[in-house]
Amino acid sequence: MQKKVGIIGAMEIELNQLKSILQDKKETETAGMTFFEGTVSGCPVVLVRSGIGKVNAALCAQLLALKFGVTHVINTGIAGAMAHGLKVLDFVVSSDALYHDMDATGFGYKPTQIPQMECSDFRADPALIEAARNAFGRTGDSASHKMLLGRVASGDQFISDRALKEKIRSICDPACVEMEGAAIAHACYLNKIPFVIIRCMSDMADDGEETSYTFNEQTAAALSATLVIKMLDTVK
Ligand code: ADE
């Protein structure tokens, strides 16, 4: 079956590289989002900026599934580093994704557990993970930066506080935090679409990282998108 890869970035800077090399472009507006269909490296894709946060991200992934019939989803962008040893401009490829801010513990559920759902921790697709690792090995970045396979924790919160970072670590021990990945993973799980999240670290999710974030967001976003472009060589 011909693959069609939905590629979601929350912000424009997370999609710029991909958009600049998109061929045979066709634009569709839906739900306040612009979907760009075409090909990148010969692979059929739909590029879209979801907007920030879990609801925007889930709506976007659902539209990719229902309206555009994508067979795979890749979420590209930036994140705050959580795993020990992970630094700014290192990469995380998702093993799984969950919501660090899902809390129904008052009803006896575990932190992050979604009430009345059989799955709260959405597993990324092994073939897409492999494509990401393979692509990373083919970039110049692998000499100076590392790529970690690990958990992505999402929430409607920008994490810039040491105590909060430690609290999230104690709840679910993620490799990185961001604001969309798990919602995309959740929609993909419900629609039975394989997904992966690729994130390049813009900050340490720590005290004072607004400065680090501002300084690194463009570079990190571009590095992540460049990696996705390399992935598409092997995904198609
Ligand atoms: N995206 C990039 N850095 C982040 C952080 N520290 N918290 C949430 N989302 C992010």
From TrEMBL:
Q: Which Gene Ontology cellular component annotation is one that this UniProt entry carries? A: cytosol
Q: Which GO terms describe its molecular function?
A: adenosylhomocysteine nucleosidase activity; methylthioadenosine nucleosidase activity
EC numbers listed for it are 3.2.2.9
Ordered alphabetically, the record's keywords are: Amino-acid biosynthesis, Glycosidase, Hydrolase, Methionine biosynthesis
InterPro entries recorded:
MTA_SAH_Nsdase (IPR010049), Nucleoside_phosphorylase_d (IPR000845), Nucleoside_phosphorylase_sf (IPR035994)
Pathway(s) of this molecule: Amino-acid biosynthesis; L-methionine biosynthesis via salvage pathway; S-methyl-5-thio-alpha-D-ribose 1-phosphate from S-methyl-5'-thioadenosine (hydrolase route): step 1/2
Does the record bear Hydrolase in its keywords? yes
Full protein name: adenosylhomocysteine nucleosidase
Species name for this entry?
Treponema peruense
